[in-house]
Write a structure and sequence with these properties.
The complex is a heterodimer of chains A (306) and B (297). With 306 residues, chain A is α/β, with parallel strands linked by helices. Helix content of chain A is 38%, strand content 22%. The chains are: A alpha/beta (306), B mainly alpha (297).
């Protein structure tokens, strides 16, 4: 996959931080604060796919939501196309929203059960795009075809579709407003392996065809490698390592990355490495896995007293 | 983005809708069909009372001295009352305040309570707190007692009784919808609408409220029976419909004094009310079962 880098990054994040205040502690006076995203900086260039990898609770989803400004950052800057958006008000964000769209993990839950597929995909067209109903129907069909669905799905309700079909509808909806950036938050982790592959291939295909930029969030290194040019590894709210996917796979620098790689033996066999090699490697990486474990109290992201 | 052109004659296939599913479930259940039929008959009889009732003038309140307190007979199916009026005609006319008005009361209570609850749950913060404390205030009193107090303050009469019931019933809907709204607020499809740039009032109207429809519908169906009883209670106490107009509660009150020598005057409006309330309760149960997630196919 070729990386076409323009001069300025489409998204630039500078020492972005998000703290969540945890409930309780008002009696002792010790307010506990969750450092979900801690001083993260990264750039995503136009046409590029950046993968964010990490275990559950490492703050990668929060990072995605911050970039979309679905959450307000505690500190730091977010530059979208050179414009600082971290401190914009909700009303000021509305015109920018159509340029960045999101696809969520759980496809059934990301579609309203009361709306038909046609209305779900048409919603951004009508409410934001200002396109009339009769025109939007043709447009919706075009979008559905683009994600591998057809006219027979138009009048279905989400509960009548499979998980993979729901995810295709969610992708069609995300594409409706011609966005430049797609934030994909674990788009395949709730799907069967066979369906995962179809959706991933669709995403790769769409990116090439439409020149989209992806921020791809996943815990599955194999999935990220398939879709992304560059990978950033996140651990306890910080980015511990980033670089081109091939380099990270060939020579993981950070012990946590090594542990992540060691934790996917099935991935090894998928990549043609034989069983014996796989075993040896997992033994070699045993200490690396051990490194990630000794955090008894802070499960996932670090709990630190403020 | 390029959109693939389509042939002009695209056939649109309709999948099975929730409405069709509901109809299938109802058709399989004889009780629900029965209760629906009963409600429909009541509705038609009340709406077309002047044409359905055998003695429309008496139904509306005109007394007829020659036929005082006659027992049920082929001429007067439910007998006549102390003023010689045909009880059957009165029961049919009584359905207007006793059944149509509660329908309007519940409808209005939903219209006021549901949007307030949806916004409160969605916005949270001070708005939520304010609305919920106000509903707490209302819910602290028994609904019927509150309605009686309000009617007493406003003055007797059907309109005031109905208004009083609306005032004491909307907080229930605000409460129910607020709970549903809170659980929907953080769902992915709402977040997706946010990220699309859909404005908040549109999100509430298009995503939150339609997804609260199930609890509203079930509560409204079960509530209708209660409101019919409350309306009857107010009429019985002389706070609702004023004589000579007919109302089941009022008729029971009027017939109460002669229950030993002319049982039919009070019993038939009682039966009319009981059957209708029962029908609504049965329908409410069926609806609740249908919308229960465990009943999904």
């Amino acid at each position: 996959m070729t990386v076409s880098r323009s001069e300025a990054p489409l998204i630039e994040v500078r020492s972005l931080t998000k703290h969540f205040r945890l409930p309780g502690g008002w009696l002792t006076g010790k307010r506990r604060v969750l450092h979900a995203v801690d001083d993260v900086s990264l750039q995503v260039y136009t046409g590029e796919a950046l993968g964010i990898v990490g275990e559950s609770g490492c703050g990668k989803t929060t990072l995605g939501r911050l970039v979309l400004r679905l959450l307000d950052p505690t500190a730091g800057q977010i530059l979208f196309d050179g414009r600082e958006i971290a401190k914009l008000k909700k009303s000021e964000l509305l015109p920018l929203r159509r340029q960045m769209q999101v696809v969520f993990q759980n496809p059934q839950q990301s579609l309203s059960a009361r709306l038909r597929v046609a209305d779900i995909v048409a919603e951004p067209l009508r409410t934001v795009g200002g396109i009339a109903d009769d025109q939007s129907r043709r447009r919706v069909l075009g979008l559905l075809e683009q994600v591998g669905l057809g006219a027979q799905h138009l009048d279905r309700y989400p509960h009548e579709l499979s998980g993979g079909q729901c995810q295709r509808v969610a992708i069609a909806r995300a594409l409706a407003l011609d966005p430049v950036l797609l934030v994909l938050d674990e788009p395949t982790s709730a799907l069967d392996v066979s369906v995962q592959a179809q959706i991933l291939n669709l995403l790769v295909d769409l990116r090439q065809r439409l020149g989209l930029t992806y921020l791809f969030i996943s815990h599955d290194l194999g999935v990220v490698e398939h879709v992304c040019d560059r990978i950033a590894v996140m651990y306890l709210g910080k980015i511990v390592e980033s670089g081109p996917g091939k380099e990270i796979f060939a020579a993981p620098g950070h012990p946590y990355t090594q542990a992540l790689l060691g934790a996917i033996p099935s991935q090894m066999s998928r990549r043609g490495v034989n069983w014996l090699c796989c075993r040896v490697m997992s033994q070699v990486r045993q200490p690396a896995i051990w490194l990630s474990i000794p955090h008894p109290v802070p499960v996932g992201t670090g709990y630190l007293p403020d | 983005m390029s959109v693939i052109p389509l042939p002009a004659d695209v056939e649109i296939v309709t999948g099975s809708t929730r409405g069709a599913q509901l109809w299938r479930v109802l058709r399989r259940d004889p009780l629900s069909i029965m209760s629906l039929t009963i409600i429909l008959i009541y509705l038609l009889m009340s709406l077309f009372a002047p044409w359905v009732a055998p003695y429309p003038a008496q139904g509306a309140g005109k007394s007829n001295p020659p036929t005082v307190m006659l027992p049920p007979s082929p001429q007067h199916w439910m007998g006549t009352d102390q003023l010689g009026r045909d009880v059957f005609s009165r029961v049919i006319f009584g359905g207007r305040p006793a059944f149509i008005v509660p329908l309007l009361v519940v409808g209005l209570a939903v219209l006021i309570g549901a949007p307030l609850g949806a916004i409160a749950g969605f916005k949270g913060g001070w708005f939520d707190e304010t609305i919920m404390r106000i509903t707490d205030l209302f819910l602290a009193f028994p609904s019927l007692l509150l309605a009686m107090a309000i009617t007493a303050a406003l003055g007797r009469g059907l309109e005031n009784a109905a208004l009083a019931l609306v005032i004491s019933w909307w907080p229930w809907y605000a409460r129910i919808v607020r709970g549903a709204s809170v659980s929907l607020r953080d769902r992915y499809f709402v977040e997706a609408a946010h990220s699309m740039g859909v404005r908040e009032p549109v999100i509430v109207a298009r995503h939150i409220l339609p997804n609260c429809l199930t609890p509203i519908l079930i509560q409204a169906t079960i509530d209708l029976g209660t409101v019919i009883l409350a309306m009857g209670g107010l009429a019985f106490l002389g706070m609702g419909t004023q004589p000579p107009a007919a109302d089941w509660g009022l008729m029971i009150s009027e017939g109460r004094t002669s229950i030993l020598n002319a049982w039919w005057i009070a019993i038939f409006p009682m039966l009319a009310m009981m059957i209708l309330v029962l029908a609504f309760n049965l329908l409410g149960d069926v609806l609740r079962d249908f919308f229960d997630p465990r009943h999904y196919r």
